[in-house]
Amino acid sequence: MTDPNAHRLWIQEALNLQLAEPDARTLGQRLYDALRGGIQQGRLPPGSALPSSRQLAASLGMGRNTVLSAVDLLIAEGFLVSRPGAGVFVADWQWGTQQRLEAPEPLSVALSQRGERLLEFTAPSSERHTAFAPGVPALDRFPRERWQRLLRRHQQRAPVEWFDYQNVGGVSTLREVLCDYLRLARSVRCRPEQILITQGAQQGFELIARLLADVGDSVWMEEPGYGGAQACFASAGLALQPVPVDGDGLNVASLRSETPSPKLIYVTPSHQYPCGATLPMSRRAALLALAQRHGAWIIEDDYDSEFRYTSAPIASLQGLMDNAPVIYVGTFSKVLYPGLRLGYLVLPPSLVASFQRINARLHREGQYVAQAALADFIGEGHFSRHVARMRRCYRHRQSALRQALAPAVSNGLALSAGHAGMHLVAYLESHELENELVHQGKQAGLRLSPLSGFYLQAPGQPGLVLGYAGATEAEIERAGHWLSETWLSLTRHSISHGPV
Ligand SMILES: Cc1ncc(COP(=O)(O)O)c(C=O)c1O
Fold this sequence. Notes:
The chain is an alpha/beta fold. The chain has 3 domains: 4-90, Arc Repressor Mutant, subunit A, CATH 1.10.10; 141-384, 3-Layer(aba) Sandwich (Aspartate Aminotransferase, domain 2), CATH 3.40.640.10; 392-490, Aspartate Aminotransferase, domain 1 (Alpha-Beta Complex), CATH 3.90.1150.10. It is 42% helix and 13% strand. Helix 6 crosses helix 12. Pyridoxal-5'-phosphate (PLP) is lined by residues 135, 200-202, 226, 228, 268, 273, 301, 303, 331, 333, 338, 343. Residues 25-93 form the HTH gntR-type domain.
């Protein structure tokens, strides 16, 4: 090793040069980076003596404390060592001077087979929601100020338990008001203890899949159906059995007798997702009997039953009889907003304790402030008022979409009835047309959801699922006009249009 003093001077000079360049980082951060970079890249070999903190501070024009904190951090991280009485030295860095630490090539991403399969159930995440995004509520109409006030109220009063790990199934006031609401509005048979608050319906599906089915067990799914549930059951290793949906919803009678017996049956009986049918009473009774025969659990996903426009909401399947083999799944993503991540399960009493324990183990409970705010939101009547307002709003948004699509509809575009919910389905003649509309939509800045993508088995029926709830009437009109005109031009219908 050369003379330590010469080395110290050299380090000082090098640092002086580096720190003279203009830079947005703080001086302390720059000194730290310069020393660490020098050590990692071998410019400061092991054993090199650092100038004293006093010398460095004077020559670099920074406070001594700034130098000391950078040096102390590097000592703590093992890049430098302090030898009392002798000074600070570059540690005997294990990569040495020959093996420099250089950034490797980025890792090539190899997902598991399960991961690759799950990608098929998702859209690219970076895309912004546009006029036709299905399942997005009117975020522009959510009473944000009132909500913030309720959150603040409970933030200020939060008891210490809310800061702890807990295993209680959710805030008791929320489970109580929710129970009253579900009994009255949805004819669900329950007591507050049967409700488990989750981070949305998705987590509810996840718990059901993990706790009630084993890898390879069969889950019967509506075909077409909800991609969130499909993805969740696929990731739990279940065998997804598509069950055709017709104008009356899930049609189990159409399955062949050799179809594997179900462990779980997923269904959206109030408003089939995405085609919109309501499961009639005869099919409900048959489904309950079938589940009992097979010892299967029905998962009743009641995601948007609040939004019916032509009749009162249909009573739940769960409430049709005592001890029905049904787990009722609800969400606040549609009535409030999806980012809230609050939903719930109504469990049969025999399952409550296990679900509560395993939920606390796998996912942890939390969001107690939001849960308490939500209890007040429901209890003080804001929830019912918001639902009533949104029903009116969605009726208007749906009729704006219908009007905009009228030229295409009068030339043969088939639209779903739209008695309920937050989207319409436009049925198309061919997959080529579906592809072309999705493609042209992308170019026009619209993300169109192809109906065939809701099927587990290709090719599925061609069509488009057109969400109308999350965009303003003006946006809906603009997008609807575009779709109507594009459909007309692609199907070579010719009519004259007024100005858009
Ligand atoms: C059929 C269906 N179920 C449930 C949900 C809600 O899921 P979450 O509560 O996880 O947001 C959605 C949302 O799009 C849905 O379309």
